[in-house]
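Incident log, structure service

09:12 report received: a user says their structure output differs between two submissions of the same chain.
09:20 pulled the input from the user's history:
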Amino acid sequence: MTIAIGNDHAGTEYKFEIIKLLEGLGYKVINFGTNDNDSMDYPDTIHPTAEAVEAGMADFGIILCGSGNGAQITANKHQGVRAGLCWNNELVELTRKHNNANILTIPARFVSLQQALGFVKIFLETEFEGGRHQNRVDKISCEC
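09:34 re-ran on a clean worker, output below:
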């Protein structure tokens, strides 16, 4: 399984630890994020991450920025993307079970590294429930 990852300067340190975790679990990682802490514009790394998920080059994505809001908004501009902003374990589980999210958004300035690593595991281990939720997910993308 392939995971695309993108981040701005606020998520760089977490990104490196997440990559270590993912590779240790046997995942292939495509890194679209910045590798330093110099201020940069998050859309420059989030759009390529979302495009990789949307195009099927990656099975899932993980994106990080300070609050997570800018990254999530950017990723969700892509029709084939369902990015969920999560700051606790229950939200991570529900965004997969109920929304079939294919990108996990982590607010790096509001969660600890240990929390972020836990979110990644939960996200990748949780299956979409389908059923009553499928009809709702089918209505998310718009015909623009």
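09:41 both user submissions now match this output. Likely a transient worker issue. Closing.
09:42 reviewer note: The mean pLDDT is 96. Residues 12-24 form the longest helix (13 residues).
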